[in-house]
Amino acid sequence: MLKIENLHVRVAGKEILKGLSLEVKAGEVHAIMGPNGAGKSTLGNVLSGREGYEVVEGSVTYQGKNLLELEPEERAAEGVFLAFQYPVEIPGVNNTYFLRSALNAQKKYRGEPEVDSMQFLKLVREKLSVLHLKDELLHRAVNEGFSGGEKKRNEIFQLALLEPKLAILDETDSGLDIDALKAVADGVNLMRSPERAFLVITHYQRLLDYIKPDVVHVLADGRIVESGGPELALELEAHGYSWVKDRVAP
Amino acid sequence: MTALLESLQTAFAGSAQSRQALDEAVAIGLPGPRSEQWKYTSLRALSARHFAAPASTLATINADTRKTIAAIPAPRIVFVNGVFDPENSALTNLPAGLNIQSNNVKAPVEDSRFAAAHEIFAKLNTAIASKGLQIELSKATGDPIRLHAVFVSLNSGHDLAIAYRHNIVLGENAKLDLIEHHISQDAHQHLSNHLCDIALHDGAELTHARIQQDDAGASQFLRTEAALQTHATYRRLDLELGAHLSRHDLQISLLGDGANVHANGSLIASGRRHIDTRLDIRHIAKNTSCHLLWRGLANERGRAVFHGGILIEKGADGTTAHLSNKNLLLSDNAEIDTQPVLVIHADEVTASHGATVGRLDAGHLFYLRARGIPEAQAKAMLTNAFCKETLQVLANDELVGLVAPHLEKMLQSTEVQA
Questions:
Q1: Which of A169, A184, B139, B198 is 20 to 30 A from B267 via CA?
Q2: Residue B107 has what pLDDT?
Q3: With contact defined as beta carbons under 8 Å apart, do B3 and B50 qualify?
Q4: d(Cα B202, Cα B229) in Å, to the nearest integer?
């Protein structure tokens, strides 16, 4: 589904990713772990098409297409979803209006029929109940006045509603208490399917207690330095990232 | 000496009093760039033009205009090119206590308030305006009474100088919702000059939405002076959506203890339009408050000018004053000038003011696009949200519903979205 080869990315003139390679197949959950400054968020941002990330070398192929050539909205409509580390508050833009615009824009891109407001409401109610979210959240402006936990749950709600093929969770666990963390993990687990892949970017092993990955990668100094099964996350938790840093060739 | 003033002198040589005021205006001349009040709004091009007096006979409005007017269901008073239009007005069966006239009978020609050179348009108004909105609501009613005032301008072959003098008086505890609507039937380059005096007596509440949608060739000058007595409340919304040049001087005096003003506005300066709003809020009595939220948008070669003046006089203790002015600059050729000014002479005051000029937030734009919303649509959504924030001042969903479509339609136009 996703193939990243020798990816080099510069941010503000500084090379952050230095030859990252990674392959994710449909149905798989990959965890990307690594210390601060390793390039974890850069990976999420470059895959979703945020401005300011300059790809100097390498390629990203998603379902046979060159992902890097697509605009952010085209990537979204092709099925790439980024759950933001810091979801922004957008005053004045109603959450329901935003979600319906997003869903219909994606459907339009794919040549599918758009949903009317009745169908949309039905769909939203269904997803809300699955995630145990209050529908009061829909009447507010996008993320405005949401707590940290509500913002992250709203990201997962969007994930459930938009049903992407590749979901990238960028430190979705950061700043969450244990209950919110479980709620987020439950939402993600409900979405796991043979057609859908997840890239779970996290600093701590904690989230992986609830979202069981198939593969764990360690990202350090802009490259994947170690890949393994779920046990790798436990080793990292026990030894810390300095253990990995020592293994990175100078 | 300017062509503009001389043409008015000729066109409006009616009563001896008018002549005298016009002669004085010609002697004073139009303010130039050295005038503090006119620094950002040049009258040079306008000063070279000639204007005629409007005909005293009523011009007929077309079906489209009638339809636009009818979209707001309420008792209505309509003026067309300065002339009262009884046929399109709806003034029968008015609620008790409400008195509406179209002739200015009370206001004097001589008005010492407008002696200063920078007040020249108000001075001209007192000399030439014979029509306008005269509203008196004497009685307290439970629910507010709604009124729709419409000013239609249309091409009549000449560039006209059209002056209106308005007087709005609300008695004790009287409540009025007023929608003031300026529309243009076709392309024209008239100069319209409004002077509006508002008196709100103790406990009166006025909710006042002004929708300015004049033609892109028109020039509009408006001076509003509102005086608020004890516990009076004035909610005001200005949607500046039209005209080539629109200047509004809004002076509100909080004369009685506990008087409140909530004044919001959206200044949409797209195309080649120049929108200039000057606030002059005066806290005079104790425990008065003002909440001012203004949003500006400039695109293409448009220019938005905002001056937010708040004066808290000695003795106006316990004042609350908040001003927020945010602006969106969407093109390199557009310009925004903003100047919040807060002067405090009293004690125990809570005051804040802030002004910003910027582009659409890149983080907001990316968030929408990352969910699949195309860039142009995402920009439109954010621009809409930004400009519509002011509507909340009406504090009434039904009123917002009547007013919002005019702002939305303007925001969808190509010159805003370009």
A1: B198
A2: 62
A3: yes
A4: 5
- Among A21-35, A167-181, B146-160, where is mean pLDDT lowest? A167-181
For the whole model, what pTM was predicted? Answer: 0.89
Query: Which of B366, B372, B381 faces A106 most closely, judged by CB atoms?
Result: B372
Task: Return the ∠ at Cα B415 (arms to B121 and B164), rounded to 5°.
Answer: 20
Which is nearest to B146 in space by CA: B71, B231, B211, B207?
B207
Q: In Å, how far are A178, B110, B148, B176, B405 from B399, measured between CA atoms?
A: 45, 37, 11, 12, 11
Kindly report the backbone phi and psi dihedral angles of residue B358, in degrees, each rounded to the nearest multiple of 5, phi listed first. -160, -175
What distance in Å separates the CA atoms of residue B66 and residue B88, rounded to the nearest whole number? Answer: 8
Helix (H) or strand (E) run with residue B5 in it: helix B3-11
**Looking at CA atoms only, how far is residue A93 from chain B in angstroms?**
6
| Per-residue pLDDT reduced to its tens digit, B269-325 | 999 999 999 999 999 999 999 999 999 999 999 999 999 999 999 999 999 999 999
Instruction: Provide the residue ranges of all domains of chain B, joining segments of one domain with +.
Output: 3-357
Q: Do B385 and A93 touch (CB under 8 A)?
A: yes
Contacts of A102 in chain B (CB under 8 A): 368, 371-373
Which of A51, A93, A96, A107 is most worth mutating to test chain B (most B CB atoms within 10 A of its CB)? A93
pLDDT score, position A250: 47
Minimum distance, in Å, between the CA of residue A235 and any CA atom of chain B: 34
Chain A: closest CA distance from residue B367 (Å): 7
Provide DSSP, B213-277: E--TT-EEEEEEEEEE-TT-EEEEEEEE---SEEEEEEEEEE-STT-EEEEEEEEEE-TT-EEEE
Q: What tokens does B363 get?
A: 């983080």
Measured CA to CA, the distance from residue B160 to residue B83 in angstroms comes to: 12
Alpha-carbon distance B117 to B29, whole Å? 8
Set of chain A residues whose Cβ sits within 8 Å of the Cβ of B374: 71, 73, 105
- When pLDDT is cut at 50, 70 and 90, the band that residue B140 belongs to is confident
Mean of pLDDT values over B38-50: 94
> Smallest CA–CA separation between B397 and chain A, in Å?
15
| A46 near B CB under 8 A | no
A101–B contact, CB cutoff 8 A = yes
Q: Which class for A178: exposed (0-12), middle (13-18), buried (19 or more C-beta within 10 A)?
A: exposed
